[in-house]
Amino acid sequence: MERREESGSIFSCEGGYPDDVMAYYTNNGLATGGDPQATVAEPTGCLPYPSLMADSASCPTACDDGSALDTQKAGEYRTITSKNVDEIMQELYIYGSVVVCFDVYEDFYYLGPGIYQYSYGPNVGSHAVRVIGWGVENGVPYWLAVNQWGTGFGDNGFFKFLKGADHCGFESLVSFAYPSDAY
């Protein structure tokens, strides 16, 4: 989900909703990066580039070298608002990842290894992250998520979040897109 700003209100760290990104992906497509079998000597598609946190990069319609932008559309997107943990787990198992929005509190910024559970500080806004799995640690169920704040956050960029309690609204707004070849 690198393409953000052309879908309306989706500016990194400036608000927006993942389901808007999913709608954009379904209707317009996103850059694929080209043929995954291509070699470094003869790449296809646009090469990836770094984007600073809170930087709303523009999304070009052609590659820097003038070649066509290889895009892929989603077949369909959905949003789960039922807080149904089994449904979220099913989507993760079948398609690999989902995006969740949740309320962020001050202590989240200081997260290290272990399962996050709110303990102190005011609400500082909302955040969206990619969830890639789930597990149990010391008898406590958790979601495994990837944060886009880099490897200095959490456990090398990953973190565990309390599962099954809709903690901080983590299970209230879950979005995902099906690949166009999933039908």
TrEMBL record:
PROSITE patterns, alphabetized: THIOL_PROTEASE_HIS (PS00639)
SUPFAM superfamilies according to UniProt: Cysteine proteinases
GO molecular function, one term: cysteine-type peptidase activity
Name of this protein: Peptidase C1A papain C-terminal domain-containing protein
Record family assignment: Belongs to the peptidase C1 family.
SMART domains per the UniProt record, alphabetical: Pept_C1
Record-linked InterPro entries: Papain-like_cys_pep_sf, Pept_his_AS, Peptidase_C1A, Peptidase_C1A_C
Gene Ontology biological-process entries: proteolysis
Superkingdom of this protein's organism: Eukaryota
Peptidase C1A papain C-terminal domain ranges (all copies): 4-178
Pfam families assigned: Peptidase_C1
